[in-house]
Amino acid sequence: MAEGLLVKHLNEKHKYADWSVDSCGTSNYHKGELADHRMRLTANKYGIELTHRSRQLKIEDFDLFDHLMVMDEQNYKDVIAVCPEKKDKVNLISNYSSNYKGQMIPDPYFGDLKGFDEVYKLLDHICAEIVQGFNLKY
Q: FRET pair for 46, CA 20 to 30 Å: which of 9, 40, 59, 68?
């Protein structure tokens, strides 16, 4: 969802060409699959089509990307374990927001559609701030 929202906000600000945005997970449970159907349904409700296929984080990602944004503390620990010497590139996505700094993004997977909607709205605010340039240097 965060990838889709970042791309949406970048396209609205005509900056997408300046950025490379990709999504990945810390495990390979859903490798090659589309996002959860409830996440896609929620995104579609707001005019976003999620077409990304799941992939697992690779050590090369630490060289390809300036920022690796994670959703919660466990994601943070899992990601820095892959490449501890480049942990300065890893941060909670909420830490790029002046309004939601330090907030964990809940995983709605085991809940109902309401949880997906709440995560969408939270990430939408955060991604809008990222694109507007808030706290990119953290």
A: 68
CA distance 20 to 7: 9
pTM of the model: 0.90
For residues 120 and 64, give the distance between their C-alpha atoms in angstroms, rounded to a whole number: 26
Neighbours of 15 (CB within 10 A): 12
- pLDDT tens string 8-48: 999 888 666 778 899 999 988 888 899 999 999 999 999 99
Rg (CA), the chain: 14
Q: Which of 48, 61, 45, 33 is nearest to 1 (CA)?
A: 48
Asked if 90 and 76 touch (Cβ cutoff 8 Å), the reply is yes
Amino acid at 20: S
List the domains of the chain with CATH numbers: 2-132 (3.40.50.2300)
Q: Which of 130, 124, 131 is nearest to 48 (CA)?
A: 124
The residues of the chain scoring below 70 in pLDDT are: 14-16, 134-138
Chain CA centroid to CA 102, Å: 15
